From TrEMBL:
Name of the protein in question: Glycine/D-amino acid oxidase
Cofactors: FAD
All copies of domain FAD dependent oxidoreductase, residue ranges: 5-355
Protein family (similarity comment): Belongs to the DadA oxidoreductase family.
GO molecular function: oxidoreductase activity
Swiss-Prot/TrEMBL keywords: Flavoprotein, Oxidoreductase
Annotated PANTHER family: D-AMINO ACID DEHYDROGENASE, SARCOSINE DEHYDROGENASE-RELATED
Domain of life: Bacteria
UniProt organism field: Marinilactibacillus piezotolerans
GO cellular component, one term: cytoplasm
Pfam family, one: DAO
Keyword Flavoprotein appears in the UniProt entry: yes
């Protein structure tokens, strides 16, 4: 029997998850194209802890809640009996700080209510500075924080490398190439690169902020805009940070410890920079300075060892979307995952894979309507 040819454009967390899942299917031949430039996933040192957000959008909350719950299940499947590497994903818990202690109590109430339908939040309690110090010996602050044991951190780059490697092992083709254009012949989508034009049975566009580049030439109006995110990495010499929780101070800058004293600090949210990826060291030094108040001198004097920059994708109302592209047979897309795309990515990749396989989807498409963001001008 001839295999159905499936292509995925975009090898961030969404496309790589879909490629992994679809490459398990013996009836499909899967090809993943990824240029890799500006990728949000590889830049992200990601926090998976959506439950304590004050954002009230119920559909968004459902997506990130179920996305967070899906992670351990998905990665256990990917690892097939081998332990999930801590470099990729580690459920270390999160510590959320608020300047006003009353706000911590409010959040605890919200969290306890949400835990009724999200037991994966795990233990939830306000920790005193002394209790925080037991988890993070370099903490010298005097503030309490809300502890959520189920929170996790993910290194986006390691995650996509793992998923793409597994997809290739399962028979997927990986092309580190830019898809110049998408064209259509009858009901067949065609992907055109500088090397060749290839016709597929079905195509997934998981290209995040770059979606307009592929759809606008086909006369679509696409409501997607780029947001620049930068972060930096410090190294704490002779310090074991592997199981430190993620630290979320008030404001936008979070502290995300990884193993071997490696700690990531970020990220910026810059709406006026387009697809610019240049590192602004002055801005990042200010961010670092703000982040390390409340920690010992050892933390403050740590050396910066790396910088990262990437692009997030947003819609005008900050809502995500996914589904079949309207009026374009056999083409599916997802985008607009914004600053919680690493949390939702594997689940959204699964939904796209389910669409390719004509299976019921894990999230209801009507709650994330693609038609609101992609409209044919014809
Ligand atoms: C600094 C930073 C920190 C973040 N922190 C968090 C966090 O803590 N928690 C969280 O949940 N989320 C976080 N995010 C958001 C999250 O990383 C993104 O929402 C998510 O990774 C988007 O995944 P994606 O697969 O949709 O897109 P991307 O990861 O952006 O991947 C899209 C890929 O498509 C490729 N591509 C585009 N056009 C083409 C083409 N024509 N041909 C071939 N390839 C193409 C790109 O090169 C790219 O590799 C962060 C983002 C940034 C930038």
């Amino acid at each position: 029997m001839q295999k159905k040819k499936i292509a995925i454009v975009g090898g961030g967390v969404v496309g790589a998850s879909a490629a992994y899942l679809l490459s398990k299917e013996p009836t499909l031949e899967v090809t993943l194209y990824d240029e890799g430039v500006g990728q949000g996933t590889s830049a992200a040192a990601g926090i998976i802890s959506p439950w304590l957000s004050k954002r009230r959008n119920k559909k968004w909350y459902r997506m990130v809640k179920e996305g967070a719950a899906f992670y351990p299940e998905f990665l256990s499947e990917v690892m097939n009996g081998v332990a999930i590497p801590k470099t990729v994903y580690n459920q270390v818990g999160t510590l959320l700080f608020k300047n006003n202690p009353e706000h911590l109590k409010d959040l605890l109430k919200i969290g306890l209510k949400r835990r009724e339908s999200a037991p994966e939040i795990g233990e939830l309690k306000i920790l005193s500075p002394e209790e925080i110090k037991k988890k993070i010996p370099l903490y010298t602050g005097i503030e309490s924080a809300l502890w959520a044991a189920g929170g996790a951190r993910v290194d986006g780059k390691y995650l996509v490398d793992l998923l793409i490697q597994k997809a290739i092992t399962q028979g997927a083709h990986f092309k580190k190439e830019h898809v110049e254009t998408l064209t259509v012949k009858g009901h067949h989508p065609i992907l055109n690169t500088i090397h060749q034009n290839t016709q597929y049975d079905k195509v997934i566009l998981a290209v995040a902020a770059w979606l307009p580049n592929l759809l606008e030439p086909l006369e679509y109006k696409v409501d997607i805009r780029p947001q620049k995110g930068q972060l930096l990495e410090i190294e704490l010499k002779n310090t074991i940070t592997t199981n430190w929780p993620v630290i979320m101070p008030e404001g936008e800058t979070d502290i995300i410890p990884f193993e071997n004293g490696r700690v990531i600090i970020g990220a910026t949210h810059e709406n006026d920079k387009g697809f610019d990826l240049e590192i602004d060291k002055v801005q990042l030094t200010h961010m670092l300075h703000d982040a390390v108040t409340g920690f010992s001198d050892h933390f403050k004097q740590a050396s910066v060892v790396n910088y990262r920059s990437g692009t997030r994708a947003y819609t005008s109302d900050f809502a995500p979307f996914f589904g079949p592209v309207p009026e374009l047979s056999n083409v599916y897309a997802a985008s607009g995952l914004g600053s919680t795309g690493l949390t939702a990515g594997p689940l959204v990749g699964k939904v796209l894979a389910q669409l390719i396989l004509d299976k019921p989807t894990s999230l209801p498409l009507e709650d994330y309507p693609i038609r609101n963001y992609i409209q044919s001008k014809k």
